Amino acid sequence: MATRKEKAIQQWREEKAARAEHKEVRPNRKPKRTRQKEWNQFTFSDPEDWLDVDYDRNERVMPHGEQSAWRDTVTATTIELDRKPQEEQPVGEGWMRGLVVEVAAGLYRVRVEERELLCSVRGSLSVEDTNYTNIVAVGDDVLFSESLEQEGVIERVLPRRSVLARPDVFYGHLNQVIVANVDQVLIVASWREPHIWLELIDRYLVSSRLHNLTPVICVNKTDLAESLAECRAEMKPYIQLGYEVIYTSAMEGRGIKQLRGLLRDKVTVLAGMSGVGKSSLLKAIQPGLDIRVRDVSDHWHEGRHTTTQVNMLPLEMGGYVVDTPGIREFGLSGLHRDELAGYYPEFLTAGDCRFSDCVHLDEPECAVRRAVEAGEISETRYYNYLKIYETLPE
Questions:
Q1: Last residue of a domain, one of 163, 198, 218
Q2: Of 264, 293, 323, which one is at a domain's C-terminal end?
Q3: Which residues does the chain have with pLDDT short of 70?
Q4: What is the DSSP string of 237-248?
Q5: Residue 293 has what pLDDT?
Q6: Does some domain include residue 372?
Q7: Is residue 58 domain-resident?
Q8: pTM for this one?
Q9: Do the beta carbons of residue 310 and residue 102 sit within 8 Å?
Q10: Enclosing domain of residue 365
Q11: What pLDDT shows up at residue 308?
Q12: DSSP-derived secondary structure for 49-69
């Protein structure tokens, strides 16, 4: 007869076998993924090497601090591959190289030297396997053929060095390219009318880092503030983090000279909600730019759209500015909840949390929340993090 100990062992074995059997038939269970520890040793000498990389696997299992470094590595390598000479493709007779400066209603305005042509897109070009809903975007370098006087057909889109994208309105699983080949993002926020929206600024900062673009924060309409010191106090957390912040007033001409210096010889996209004064700033930088300016609605104190499509405008001093339609929300294309903390630099230096997968919500012994309580991390920035976190997919 079996002893009590032997019975207990037998029962334990039966329960273990039952659990294993249940585990095997558990529906929708994803297999465990082994962490790829040598992600920072990846080298890609040929574009075909990218086909063998499991991006989802490599990113999802990394600690927060390594995720941003992985993204930087991937982005930098992608850009470097674009700069390397690729296998030459045949160029059609009479094709010319131009820059897409405007997209509207399925037509593309292409600038070549001192003239512009209105172009369509060759039907053989496809968005298939690109994860984008648009074939051509403002900022694209293209090869085109001239069909009629001042008209042409885009034959090929040349490799992009950077892309600023957001989820498509109708196809959320795909992205829409807002602008390509940009150097920096000028985040324009107004002090009043409409009131400064720090959460949107944080969204743009995350997006800039996500797309490997340099952000510059421009606080406009400072003439509506009681003093410039009031503006500086509000923006102190961003200055302490090393972000460049400038203060402007298109009405009074404040900060315009400094802004010109930042835009010179660069391709800059202007980002911000309607009514913050992007178009007015551009007219102050270079009088005569063809931009329509409207007043802010007195009833709602919110901006009406000045620009209705994306425009790439040449600057006399060198460089381009890309004026985008005013938007109320900005999608963080491709970002997941567990990755967001990696785009807050102050979180990465707050110390170690008790749990390695801490997302800084209500976990015990969270170093980030402890730093917020101690005043070492901006409380406003942290609450913006929580709001943005809720809008991201898991």
A1: 163
A2: 323
A3: 1-13, 15-91, 129, 172, 290-309, 324-331
A4: HHHHTT-EEEE-
A5: 45
A6: yes
A7: no
A8: 0.68
A9: yes
A10: 337-391
A11: 47
A12: GGGG--HHHHHHTS-HHHHHH
